[in-house]
Design a protein that fits this description.
- By secondary structure, the chain is mainly β.
- 8% of the residues lie in helices and 40% in strands.
- The protein has helices at residues 41-44, 63-69, 120-124; strands spanning 5-16, 22-30, 33-39, 48-55, 75-82, 94-95, 105-111, 114-118, 162-165, 168-180, 185-189, 199-204.
- The radius of gyration is 22 Å and the shape is globular.
- The two termini are 27 Å apart.
Protein backbone atom coordinates (compact mmCIF):
# COMPACT_ATOMS: atom_id res chain seq x y z
CA UNK A 1 0.00 0.00 0.00
CA UNK A 2 1.58 3.21 -1.15
CA UNK A 3 -0.93 5.79 0.12
CA UNK A 4 -3.81 4.41 2.19
CA UNK A 5 -7.49 3.49 2.11
CA UNK A 6 -10.72 4.57 3.79
CA UNK A 7 -13.28 2.01 4.92
CA UNK A 8 -15.82 0.94 7.51
CA UNK A 9 -15.39 -1.43 10.42
CA UNK A 10 -17.82 -4.35 10.06
CA UNK A 11 -16.90 -6.16 13.27
CA UNK A 12 -14.59 -8.95 14.43
CA UNK A 13 -14.28 -12.65 13.69
CA UNK A 14 -11.52 -15.26 13.63
CA UNK A 15 -9.48 -17.00 10.94
CA UNK A 16 -6.91 -19.78 11.06
CA UNK A 17 -3.35 -19.29 9.89
CA UNK A 18 -1.11 -21.83 8.16
CA UNK A 19 -0.08 -23.30 11.53
CA UNK A 20 -3.73 -23.85 12.53
CA UNK A 21 -3.75 -21.05 15.12
CA UNK A 22 -6.95 -19.06 15.58
CA UNK A 23 -6.41 -15.33 15.04
CA UNK A 24 -8.86 -12.65 16.14
CA UNK A 25 -9.28 -10.27 13.21
CA UNK A 26 -11.12 -7.01 12.51
CA UNK A 27 -13.07 -6.97 9.24
CA UNK A 28 -12.85 -3.72 7.26
CA UNK A 29 -14.93 -2.91 4.19
CA UNK A 30 -12.34 -0.75 2.44
CA UNK A 31 -12.68 1.36 -0.69
CA UNK A 32 -13.12 1.95 -3.46
CA UNK A 33 -11.62 5.40 -2.96
CA UNK A 34 -10.84 8.09 -5.52
CA UNK A 35 -7.92 10.51 -5.34
CA UNK A 36 -9.57 13.92 -4.92
CA UNK A 37 -6.47 16.08 -4.40
CA UNK A 38 -2.68 15.79 -4.52
CA UNK A 39 -0.66 18.17 -2.35
CA UNK A 40 2.97 18.95 -3.18
CA UNK A 41 5.89 20.60 -1.41
CA UNK A 42 5.98 23.39 -3.97
CA UNK A 43 2.31 24.38 -3.68
CA UNK A 44 1.32 23.36 -0.16
CA UNK A 45 4.53 22.96 1.83
CA UNK A 46 4.09 19.21 2.32
CA UNK A 47 3.30 16.09 0.30
CA UNK A 48 -0.04 14.35 0.77
CA UNK A 49 -2.88 12.66 -1.06
CA UNK A 50 -6.56 13.25 -0.29
CA UNK A 51 -8.99 10.37 -0.82
CA UNK A 52 -12.78 10.36 -1.10
CA UNK A 53 -15.05 7.59 0.23
CA UNK A 54 -18.77 6.83 0.61
CA UNK A 55 -20.63 8.61 -2.23
CA UNK A 56 -23.89 10.35 -1.30
CA UNK A 57 -26.54 12.29 -3.25
CA UNK A 58 -25.03 15.52 -4.55
CA UNK A 59 -27.66 17.61 -2.76
CA UNK A 60 -26.12 16.62 0.58
CA UNK A 61 -22.87 18.43 -0.22
CA UNK A 62 -22.24 22.13 0.13
CA UNK A 63 -21.43 24.24 -2.90
CA UNK A 64 -17.80 24.43 -1.79
CA UNK A 65 -17.58 20.63 -1.50
CA UNK A 66 -19.12 20.14 -4.94
CA UNK A 67 -16.69 22.67 -6.40
CA UNK A 68 -13.75 20.93 -4.74
CA UNK A 69 -14.68 17.49 -6.08
CA UNK A 70 -15.46 18.75 -9.59
CA UNK A 71 -16.46 15.85 -11.83
CA UNK A 72 -15.65 13.20 -9.23
CA UNK A 73 -18.46 11.40 -7.39
CA UNK A 74 -19.99 13.36 -4.46
CA UNK A 75 -18.10 11.77 -1.56
CA UNK A 76 -19.20 12.30 2.02
CA UNK A 77 -15.86 11.35 3.61
CA UNK A 78 -12.55 12.99 2.69
CA UNK A 79 -9.29 12.00 4.38
CA UNK A 80 -5.72 13.12 3.78
CA UNK A 81 -2.75 10.75 3.85
CA UNK A 82 0.88 11.81 3.94
CA UNK A 83 2.78 10.52 0.92
CA UNK A 84 6.25 10.74 -0.52
CA UNK A 85 6.94 13.50 -3.02
CA UNK A 86 6.22 12.23 -6.50
CA UNK A 87 3.84 9.44 -5.46
CA UNK A 88 2.52 7.60 -8.50
CA UNK A 89 -1.08 8.85 -8.18
CA UNK A 90 -3.12 11.60 -9.76
CA UNK A 91 -6.56 13.13 -9.26
CA UNK A 92 -9.27 10.69 -10.32
CA UNK A 93 -7.28 7.48 -9.71
CA UNK A 94 -9.22 4.72 -7.98
CA UNK A 95 -7.68 2.82 -5.05
CA UNK A 96 -9.08 -0.53 -3.86
CA UNK A 97 -8.08 -3.39 -1.57
CA UNK A 98 -6.11 -4.78 -4.52
CA UNK A 99 -3.40 -2.30 -3.42
CA UNK A 100 -3.09 -4.07 -0.02
CA UNK A 101 -0.59 -6.91 0.29
CA UNK A 102 -1.03 -10.00 2.45
CA UNK A 103 1.20 -9.83 5.55
CA UNK A 104 1.67 -6.06 5.24
CA UNK A 105 1.81 -3.97 8.43
CA UNK A 106 -0.59 -1.01 8.67
CA UNK A 107 -1.89 1.62 11.10
CA UNK A 108 -5.64 2.16 11.51
CA UNK A 109 -7.03 5.54 12.63
CA UNK A 110 -10.63 6.03 13.74
CA UNK A 111 -12.80 7.39 16.56
CA UNK A 112 -12.92 5.21 19.68
CA UNK A 113 -16.11 4.13 21.43
CA UNK A 114 -17.61 6.82 23.66
CA UNK A 115 -18.00 5.66 27.27
CA UNK A 116 -19.62 8.79 28.69
CA UNK A 117 -18.61 10.33 32.02
CA UNK A 118 -16.37 7.91 33.92
CA UNK A 119 -14.55 7.91 37.24
CA UNK A 120 -10.82 7.49 37.75
CA UNK A 121 -11.01 3.74 38.40
CA UNK A 122 -12.53 3.04 34.99
CA UNK A 123 -10.90 5.90 33.10
CA UNK A 124 -7.33 5.67 34.41
CA UNK A 125 -7.14 2.35 36.24
CA UNK A 126 -6.84 3.80 39.78
CA UNK A 127 -7.28 1.28 42.59
CA UNK A 128 -9.33 3.61 44.82
CA UNK A 129 -9.14 3.97 48.58
CA UNK A 130 -9.09 1.38 51.33
CA UNK A 131 -12.05 -0.97 51.59
CA UNK A 132 -11.97 -1.05 55.39
CA UNK A 133 -11.05 0.93 58.53
CA UNK A 134 -14.39 2.70 58.63
CA UNK A 135 -14.37 4.39 55.23
CA UNK A 136 -17.75 4.57 53.57
CA UNK A 137 -17.35 6.66 50.40
CA UNK A 138 -13.68 6.50 49.31
CA UNK A 139 -13.72 3.15 47.54
CA UNK A 140 -13.54 4.61 44.00
CA UNK A 141 -12.33 8.12 44.85
CA UNK A 142 -9.21 9.64 43.24
CA UNK A 143 -7.60 10.83 46.48
CA UNK A 144 -5.55 14.02 46.70
CA UNK A 145 -5.20 16.00 43.47
CA UNK A 146 -2.73 18.67 44.61
CA UNK A 147 -1.10 20.54 47.48
CA UNK A 148 -2.92 23.25 49.45
CA UNK A 149 -0.85 26.39 50.10
CA UNK A 150 1.56 25.85 47.25
CA UNK A 151 0.82 25.78 44.36
CA UNK A 152 -2.78 26.40 45.50
CA UNK A 153 -4.20 24.95 42.30
CA UNK A 154 -4.65 21.72 40.40
CA UNK A 155 -2.16 21.23 37.55
CA UNK A 156 -3.45 20.88 34.01
CA UNK A 157 -3.49 17.30 32.84
CA UNK A 158 -4.10 15.81 36.29
CA UNK A 159 -5.84 12.47 35.86
CA UNK A 160 -9.38 12.93 37.14
CA UNK A 161 -12.92 11.84 36.34
CA UNK A 162 -14.32 13.02 33.02
CA UNK A 163 -15.53 12.07 29.59
CA UNK A 164 -13.99 8.81 28.40
CA UNK A 165 -13.52 7.69 24.81
CA UNK A 166 -15.08 9.23 21.73
CA UNK A 167 -11.76 10.61 20.47
CA UNK A 168 -9.24 9.95 17.72
CA UNK A 169 -7.38 6.69 18.34
CA UNK A 170 -4.78 4.72 16.39
CA UNK A 171 -4.08 0.98 16.36
CA UNK A 172 -0.50 0.57 15.21
CA UNK A 173 1.40 -2.18 13.45
CA UNK A 174 -1.54 -4.45 12.59
CA UNK A 175 -0.87 -7.35 10.23
CA UNK A 176 -3.02 -7.96 7.15
CA UNK A 177 -4.31 -11.52 7.58
CA UNK A 178 -6.49 -11.76 4.47
CA UNK A 179 -7.61 -9.67 1.50
CA UNK A 180 -10.87 -10.37 -0.36
CA UNK A 181 -10.68 -8.30 -3.54
CA UNK A 182 -14.09 -9.36 -4.87
CA UNK A 183 -15.95 -8.18 -1.76
CA UNK A 184 -13.56 -5.35 -0.90
CA UNK A 185 -12.65 -6.74 2.52
CA UNK A 186 -9.43 -6.46 4.53
CA UNK A 187 -8.94 -8.64 7.63
CA UNK A 188 -6.47 -7.22 10.19
CA UNK A 189 -5.07 -9.17 13.13
CA UNK A 190 -6.14 -7.43 16.34
CA UNK A 191 -8.69 -4.83 17.39
CA UNK A 192 -9.56 -1.60 15.62
CA UNK A 193 -10.92 1.43 17.59
CA UNK A 194 -14.60 2.27 17.38
CA UNK A 195 -17.96 0.49 17.17
CA UNK A 196 -19.35 -1.24 14.09
CA UNK A 197 -19.87 0.96 11.03
CA UNK A 198 -17.15 3.40 12.13
CA UNK A 199 -15.22 5.08 9.32
CA UNK A 200 -11.56 4.10 9.54
CA UNK A 201 -8.41 5.18 7.71
CA UNK A 202 -5.85 2.51 6.85
CA UNK A 203 -2.35 3.80 6.16
CA UNK A 204 1.15 2.29 5.79
CA UNK A 205 2.82 1.74 9.15
CA UNK A 206 4.82 4.75 10.34
CA UNK A 207 6.59 3.30 13.37
CA UNK A 208 7.47 -0.38 13.57
CA UNK A 209 7.00 -2.06 16.94
CA UNK A 210 9.52 -4.77 17.80
CA UNK A 211 7.78 -8.07 18.53
CA UNK A 212 9.07 -10.24 21.38
CA UNK A 213 9.57 -13.92 20.49
Amino acid sequence: MSVGLIGRKLGMTQVFDEQGRALGVSVIQAGPCHVTQVRTEADDGYSAVQLGFDPVPERRLTRAERGHLGRLPPYRVLREFRADEGADVSVGDELTVANVELGERVDVVSVSKGKGFAGVVKRHGFRGGKRTHGQSDRERAPGSVGAGTSPSRVFKGTRMAGRMGGGRATSRNLTVAKVDVERGLVLLVGAVPGPRDTVVAIRPVRKSIRKMD
